[in-house]
Amino acid sequence: MSSKKAEARERIKAMREEQARQERRRERMMRYGVAVAIVAAVAIIAVAVAASRGGDDGPVAVPAASGTGNGLAVEGDGAGILVGQPDAPVTIDYWMDFLCPHCAEFEAANGTLIDELVSSGQANIVYHPLTFTGGVYSSRANNAFACAADEDMASEFVNAAFASQGTQWSTGSLVDLGEQTSIGGDYESCVNDDTYEDWASAAESEAREFEVTATPTVFVNGELLDSTAWTPEGIQAAVDTAAAGGSIATPAPTGTTTPTPTPTPGATE
Fold it and tell me: Which ranges carry the Thioredoxin-like fold domain (predicted)?
């Protein structure tokens, strides 16, 4: 009887030892599983960070209509939108903001003449959209402007946007503007995807390179056009002078009123 009890005790002891071994094995496996999970999580985070950094370093999407003509030698990805014949003898560089009230005044006073200069081949115009006045609202409009340029509707967009001057542009309202202006093609998806957001930021950087601190700012064949010449007569005279190879340092036409530029927030006078 005692031998059977001894055997039973031995079996129980062995079972307990086996149970303890299994428990230790489960604990090791749990610790190993946690370690593997942590390593996997760190790897996933590292891959995500690398991917995001890789995207930042990728090429900037630049509108096909970007160019410089005979105007300012803008290098890099921030060249403005060129409207007109690229080989026109005169280039008007126009730094503007779609929410700038003085830019709207400039457009109302001179838009018709500029359209005529462009259509006749006397000049082309390079639009450099900025965000001095409208911040994020202007930034959205600038992206949409580049999307419109892709559809050969840059001038139509400019006219429509300034006609709605003061609008705090949202993606939806810019899509609506495209529909009202009959801008087709990929315009809507381009606006929704912020395709040219990085290009718009690059254009902003170019303003600093050329010491543009207010909108509007106008150059004719690389020479700064004084605000006193921001009239149809003044711009036509500047274009004629530049086409003839002269300097645009001409006196202001008399009896006219010109808009005052809107300075960059924080810029010194």
Answer: 79-240
